[in-house]
Amino acid sequence: MTRPLTMLLNEMTMTETTFVKPLSLAESKKKNYINIVKTHFNKKFGSDPSFYVRAPGRVNLIGEHIDYCGYAVFPMAIEQDILVAISLNGSNKINLTNVKESLYPDFTTSLDVLKIDSLNPKWYHYYLCGFLGMVEHASYDYLSSSSGLDIAVLGTVPPSAGLSSSSALVCAAALATMHAYSLSVSKLELASLSSKCERYIGTEGGGMDHAISVLAEPGSAKLIEFNPLQTTNVLLPEGAIFVIANSCVEINKAATSHYNIRVVECRLATQILAKACGLNVTEVSKLKDVQEFANIPVDQMEKKVKEVLHENPYSRTEVCQILELSDSEFETTLLSANTKFLQEFKLYQRALHVYQEASRVWRFKEICEKKSETSLLMLGQLMTESHASCRDLYECSHPDLDELVQLCLKAGALGSRLTGAGWGGCTVSLVPFEKVDNFLVDLKKNYYSKHFRLQELLDTAIFPTKPGGGAVIYED
Ligand code: ADP
Ligand code: NG1
């Protein structure tokens, strides 16, 4: 029977612009997790939640550490996610509980003393980032002394592994807050807002993770461009699959300064390149701005970097001299809270990585779109080049990750690289369908058995993945 046009239009609108889905439409595996978080909510708060939110983690296929430099990246959402069950509680308290209580203990705060401690980040601070970002966006208009919330969280994204568990939590919190207070925010706005508010935790991240967590559509990876934020669906070539393998080396971005150091090095390289190109340094804040204002194609920026920057690390004094800044001006305008101690900066290597990685992203997209017999080989090669650049120029790898990449290649991957921030976490490998089974067996034998302590993590440490959908609100 043909369905009326109005019904079809409603369905289209539902998938494209609103987040809300009936709970009955959730996949059965998702329903199991929803039941777990519902039971936990009920045990802690003595009632049922009003609704649920899910926001997925992601795997970045290529384009590492370039989103905060303004360049496009190429991630896809994964099945693993953060689930939030939530209800208004009529008090002025936010009560947060987590299904994994031993790792993430309960937390309660009054609405009038919300604080995010970026020096000692705890799990609930990430939730509060999303909450605060949303209420600030609404200028606190919706908050009263009875706007408190009961919240239970369940996460399946491996934490601190480069698959964006923290951003999934921030996005889920922002979306849950939006719906609890009946605010109206578009998907694009939510993606930008969640990215800004995760910075309350202290890391100066780019917008990739939130954009994909909110905007992902099942079945395709996305090219994500910034300023303005826009996304393009890209179908991945057939015949191979992306497999994630966790090195099981954990690194928390907010509790260390590695990530912000790289952001600072890119900022300094931007200023020095801009000056050398005769640009107005106050108008230029990202490496992409230099390339655009100087009107140089991205694949020719390598030449400019080699002309202007030197390979030896820059001292703080030298940077101040070049930029004509006093040390205290330098500290206040260019360094962040956890990078004030820095004395040396590798600018040549970081800028070279960023421009070359940005070119690789566009080549990756073109190969996916053109589709030829050699597509898979070429994609694999770009991924492996990207890893080498992360390891040697950006220095964001880890010996265990490098070992894992080599083992993945030996086990049949056409390409393999670290994914996400690095310094630990996961690899993503492009593996031909017919080799997947052997690939899994080989890795288990050669990496996970060798690192004996990882045996118990095997079930969750290595898994094939396909492009999943973005954030959703489930209601009964
Ligand atoms: P990632 O690369 O996974 O985003 P981060 O180091 O940025 O790693 O963030 C990890 C932090 O996010 C954890 O230390 C924890 O505070 C929070 N987090 C991740 N998953 C969960 C979860 N399931 N429940 C509560 N907090 C979580
Ligand atoms: P993960 O892997 O989630 O820590 C971080 C940044 C991204 C991006 C990647 C590196 C945040 C929230 N996320 O991701 O923006 O810069 O590193 O490509 O800071």
| Range of strand content | 15-25%
The fold-level CATH name of one domain is Ribosomal Protein S5, domain 2
Number of strands: 15
Helix share of residues? 40-55%
Bound molecules: adenosine-5'-diphosphate, 2-acetamido-2-deoxy-1-O-phosphono-alpha-D-galactopyranose
Protein described:
This is N-acetylgalactosamine kinase-like isoform X1. Residues 375-448 form the GHMP kinase C-terminal domain. Residues 40-87 form the Galactokinase N-terminal domain. Residues 142-215 form the GHMP kinase N-terminal domain. Keywords: ATP-binding, Kinase, Nucleotide-binding, Transferase. By secondary structure, the protein is of the alpha+beta class. It has a domain at 15-235 and 467-475: Ribosomal Protein S5, domain 2. The protein has helices spanning 5-16, 28-45, 123-137, 165-180, 187-198, 208-215, 258-276, 287-293, 301-308, 316-323, 327-334, 347-370, 375-392, 399-410, 436-448, 458-461; strands spanning 20-22, 51-62, 74-88, 93-98, 107-110, 149-155, 221-225, 230-234, 240-246, 314-315, 344-345, 415-418, 426-432, 462-465, 472-475. It has a 7-stranded mixed β-sheet, sandwiched between helices. Helix 3 crosses helix 5 (187-198) and helix 5 (187-198) packs antiparallel against helix 6. The protein is globular, with a radius of gyration of 23 Å. 2-acetamido-2-deoxy-1-O-phosphono-alpha-D-galactopyranose binds next to helix 6.
